[in-house]
Amino acid sequence: MSQTWIILGATSTIARSFARLASGRGDGVLLAGRDIDDMAATASDCAARGAPLAEVIAFDARNASSFKAILDQASGIEGTLSIAVFVGSMPTQDEIDADPSLISGTIVDNFTGPAEFLTMIAPLLEARGNGTIAGIGSVAGDRGRLGNYVYGAAKAGFHTYLSGLRNRMGRKGVHVMTVKPGTVDTAMTWGMDKLPFLAQPEKIAADILRGADRQKDTIYTPLIWWPVMTIIRLIPERVFKKLKI
Amino acid sequence: MTWKTSEYSGWGRVHTANSAAARPERATALAAIVEKTPAPAVGMRRSYGDACLNDGGRMIDMSRMDRVLNFDPETGILHVEAGAQIGQILKIFAPKGWLPPVMPGTGFATVGGAIAMDVHGKNHHGAGSFGVHITEITLMTPKGPKVLTPRKNAGLFKATVGGLGQTGPILSARLQLLRAKGDVMIVTERRVEAWDEFLALLDASDATYTVGWIDATARGDQLGRGILEEAETGAGLVTAAKRGKRIPVDAPSFALSPSVVRTFNAAYWRRVPDRGRTVVKPIDDFFFPLDKIHDWNRLYGKSGFHQFQCVVPIDAADSLRAMLERIAGSGLASPLAVLKRMGPGRAGYMSFPMEGYTLAVDFPNKVAATRLISELEAATVEAKGRIYLAKDALSGPDSVRGMYPEFAAWAKVVKSADPGGHYITDLVRRLNLRTA
Ligand SMILES: Cc1cc2nc3c(=O)[nH]c(=O)nc-3n(C[C@H](O)[C@H](O)[C@H](O)COP(=O)(O)OP(=O)(O)OC[C@H]3O[C@@H](n4cnc5c(N)ncnc54)[C@H](O)[C@@H]3O)c2cc1C
Ligand SMILES: NC(=O)c1ccc[n+]([C@@H]2O[C@H](COP(=O)([O-])OP(=O)(O)OC[C@H]3O[C@@H](n4cnc5c(N)ncnc54)[C@H](OP(=O)(O)O)[C@@H]3O)[C@@H](O)[C@H]2O)c1
Fold first, then answer.
1. How far is CA B17 from the centre of its chain?
2. What range does the domain containing B258 cover?
3. Pick from A38, A48, A190: which is nearest to B26 by CB?
4. Residue B224 region, left (φ>0) first, then alpha (ψ -120 to 50), else beta?
5. Which of residues 363-422 of B touch A (CB under 8 A)?
6. How far A192 CA lies from chain B's nearest CA (Å)?
7. Residue B207 domain flag
8. CB atoms < 10 A from the CB of B252, how many?
9. B385 exposed, middle or buried (CB, 10 Å; 0-12, 13-18, 19+)?
10. Exposure b/e, B404-433, CB count within 10 A at least 16 = b
11. Is residue B44 part of a domain?
12. Which atom, in ligand 1's list, is nearest to the CA of B170?
């Protein structure tokens, strides 16, 4: 049966790769985000690559009144309905230290905005009894690091939310997957130096699609981050607090 | 916009440059950069020399602006962002029965790079250069997008096609795709014994796609021997191309030593049976034979390599033969050597193609090779031919202007499009193309 993805944060570099890949195998895409013109270009691209449905719709994580229209459109989509959440923002820790009011926006973009949307749309998916919700978290959410612990905290909150959502939705046949990318070569990280195991967005997109097909609960992508983060999570806090990693 | 400072090099890895690069992913981001900090645009850096470098300055990396904006299945007109790669366009549209009108020997080249060099392909004798098939270009100027066609802003159009990026970043273009029978190639390979036979076969060929591999180490009676490939598109089934392999490290210097190359070339030539043969190939195998090995440029080791490519008029074929003789005598050539007949089709003031024969040969970056290349360049000038700036890394300011008869017209348009010289690249600086 045909599958359609609602892609939240569709202007993200990784989301664009994901939308293309899904289109190439015949999935539909409903691109949701703030920059309508840019999403229209991606929609044309997706249609050329084979998406049977490629449309755009406004979505702002910081403005919950934008959610309803997406729900309305979603309820008219036939076949399997799935959702992939790429929304996120990462001010540097220095920017945040200089202006702590940035914290709430960071939490909304990475966690509470998407969580509110997913909570609203959950009954629709439960009623359909199928589909996937893929939430993009981050390895940064696995441990609070010196360099970006507000972003990390927001992602950790999102991870925990997704875990609970999985527990709920799994009972109704809806699969929830937590995606934890390592460092990815995107607009978000362009210009940062010395990023370990830097991956291309196409690789992350392929892992997300494969993970969704195989109904994985949590994936680290690229896979190297699974052993890396397993070790990092095992470091006792008494030692970790002195490290700069 | 964030700028990332790194060391970059062209495909030949001879020239390097330290630059701060921006990598916009959407039109508004590109517009903001061009308004505040205009800088030369680059694609996938498949130019061999320094056309894609700007040492000590800024660059705009266009590789992430690569979307299909519109396709009209009735007319075959494709509107695409300039960072889209030719190989990607092929992959999306060949199954629908359409091909990029012109394909250079690498599918990694972007539409922007293909326009800025007005590239040619194996169908040049019939189809002309890439620019011939461009119906519209959108340039990003400090005042916003500006549309050029062969009729509207015609001077700027002709200065942009083949214009080395000097009129500013190309945002998108419309190109006329070509109808294809299917997504495989039916290729006839023929062994050619020597130079005169090669030219005769090239002259007589009526195939849509024609290219000659030449053994640039063969001398005497065998001078100019090689393999002629003639091809048409076709429909049918073949196995898909395998995934790319990588060259993990820089190769040691003996990897392409003269005796290795001579042995390889002889075997490669004999691989095709005496009587010739017809084979069916996946379309990208035929057009982009080297792309399957990523980073093959590392085979030449750390010091890199050069490609010499020139074109000479039909009546100067003997001069080209003399050049090949010199190359064969030097024992410096690598296995990569190509001979082709070009048609007259070109679309810009500074476009490389002219009706005649083009020869392209790779050399490792050694003193003897650079000396040989400058001799070959002098011979090209004498033959009233020209060298290809997408490949050049060695020429100086003196000869290039003379080779390109419409240089003055180009320079004039470029001067008014970019009075501040923001789009000057290392190649343009080396060849002194922007001073009166
Ligand atoms: C293996 C191989 C085979 C090749 N075979 C052929 C061949 O058969 N025929 C042929 O003609 N060429 C051939 N080439 C050369 C290649 O096609 C050209 O150098 C082409 O320009 C490379 O495209 P690019 O996107 O990498 O451009 P780059 O090398 O990154 O840039 C080339 C030029 O284009 C300009 N440019 C790039 N993008 C833009 C843009 N968006 N707006 C404005 N200016 C821009 C740059 O400023 C620069 O001057 C070959 C190269 C390789 C490596
Ligand atoms: N890059 C990495 O190394 C990395 C690593 C781990 C996890 N991630 C996560 O992967 C996801 C995708 O990021 P990316 O790397 O592709 O970076 P990106 O291109 O910067 O993507 C971020 C996206 O979030 C959108 N967004 C931000 N705030 C929003 C809001 N209030 N409402 C709607 N959309 C909003 C942005 O939209 P606009 O275009 O409108 O600004 C943009 O599309 C993010 O969740 C990120 O945290 C990235």
1. 21
2. 184-396
3. A38
4. left
5. none
6. 8
7. yes
8. 10
9. buried
10. beeeeebbebbeebbeeebbbbbbbbbbeb
11. no
12. 42
Looking at the domain that runs over A3-240, which CATH code has it been given? 3.40.50.720
Instruction: Show the beta-strand stretches assigned E in B293-382.
Output: 293-294, 305-313, 337-342, 356-364
Query: Is residue B318, in this structure, part of any structural domain at all?
Result: yes
Reported ipTM? 0.95
Q: How many structural domains comprise chain B?
A: 1
Q: Closest partner residue to A44 among B3, B64, B67, by Cβ?
A: B67
Nearest CA to ligand 2 atom 17: A188
Angle between helices B27-36 and A36-49 in degrees, nearest 10: 130
Q: Å from B287 to nearest chain A CA?
A: 21
Residues of A in contact with B68 (CB under 8 A): 44-45, 48-49
- Residues of chain B contacting residue A35, judged by C-beta atoms under 8 Å apart: 26, 28
- Is B3 part of the contact surface with chain A (CB cutoff 8 Å)? yes
Question: Does B311 reside within a domain?
Answer: yes
Q: Which residue of B has its CA nearest to A201?
A: B64
Which residue's alpha carbon is nearest to atom 46 within ligand 2? A88
Tens digits of pLDDT across chain B (436 residues): 799 999 999 999 999 999 999 999 999 999 999 999 999 999 999 999 999 999 999 999 999 999 999 999 999 999 999 999 999 999 999 999 999 999 999 999 999 999 999 999 999 999 999 999 999 999 999 999 999 999 999 999 999 999 999 999 999 999 999 999 888 999 999 999 999 999 999 999 999 999 999 999 999 999 999 999 999 998 876 655 555 667 667 776 667 788 888 888 888 889 899 899 999 999 999 999 889 888 888 888 889 999 999 999 999 999 999 999 999 999 998 888 999 999 999 999 999 999 999 999 999 999 999 999 999 999 999 999 999 999 999 999 878 999 999 999 999 999 999 999 999 999 999 999 998 7
Option in A35, A45, A190 nearest B2 (CB) = A190
For chain B, the residue count is 436
- Taking CB atoms and an 8 Å cutoff, what residues of chain B touch A190? 2, 4, 23
Question: Closest ligand to B87 CA?
Answer: 1
- Which pTM value belongs to this model? 0.97
